[in-house]
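hey so u asked for the seq, here:
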Amino acid sequence: MTAYAALRAQLDTLTTEAFRPELADIDRLPTLEITRIMNAEDATVPAAVAGELPRIAAAVDAIAARMARGGRLVYAGAGTAGRLGVLDASECPPTFNTDPQQVVGLIAGGPTAMVKAVEGAEDSAELAAADLTALGLTADDSVIGISASGRTPYAIGAVGFARSRGALTVGLSCNAGSALAAAAEHGIEVVVGPELLTGSTRLKAGTAQKLVLNLISTVTMIRLGKTYGNLMVDVRASNEKLRARSRRIVALATGAPDAEIEAALTATGGEVKNAILVILGGVDGPTAAALLATAGGHLRAALAEAR
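ran it, C-alpha cells below
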C-alpha cells in the first residue's frame, strides 16, 4: 500500500471527512435553499460543544492555575485550526490587557501560513517541537493542540513535546477516539459530524473550534480576575472606541458621574480596573495599584481589602 493509499484509508474512517450522498445535488438547488441547509447544519454545533463542557471546564481550571503562576497559554495547529488559534491569541491583549507573549498562537509554517498554505508544514511533528523550543517552553505553560481531524502531525507533535517538558496539554479535535486527544492530558472531542462540503473542516469543525477557544480563553481570563462581573475591566484603550468603552465600563461598575470618572482615570493612568477601585474603594491611584498587586489583579479582593 502506498503512503497516499494508507492516508486515504485513514481519512475514510474520519467523521469529518465523510461523504453525504443526500447533498450530492446541492449545487442544483436555489441559493436560498442552500443557505437554509447550511444554516441548519451550523445550528447543530453548539449542542456538540455542550457535550464537552465538563472537559472544557476541567482544562480551563488547570490552565488558569498555571497562568496564575506566570505560565503562558500556547495554541498550536495547522491550516484553519492554526489560524483560529492565532486569532484567539491576538484578541487577548486588547480584550484582557495581557502581554502579547502571555497567550501565543503557533501555526505550522509560521506567519506566512496565515494567508498562504505552506507545503508540508502540517506533516511535521519536528517543526512543532522546534517552534515550542523557540518559545522557551516551561512546565508552567499550557499547550493546546488544535486539529479537526485529530491526526495532524504538527498538533500531535506539539502536544507530545509539551508533555515531555512537563507542560499542561490539551488536545482539541472534532473526531471521537482521536490520536490528538489521546496524546494530551485533557482531550476535548467536539464531534460535529460530516461537513456540508466533504472534508471542508473550516465549516462546522472550524465553528466548533472557535467556540471552544472562546470558552477557554474567556473563562480562563475570568478565573484570573481579568473581569469584574461581566465587565472587561482590563480592556486596553488603544483607540477612540476603546477609550469611550473604558469610560462606559467605569460608569457601569460605579455609577459615578463623568467628572469623577475622568479624575479617576487620570489618577490611574487610564487603567479601568484601578479607576474603579479608586471610586468604589475611596483610595488614591498608587494605593489602588498596590491593593491590586497584592490581590493578584482580582478587583473584588482588592475592594474587600480597601473597604
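The longest strand covers residues 168-173. Residues 204-223 form the longest helix (20 residues).
lmk if thats what u needed
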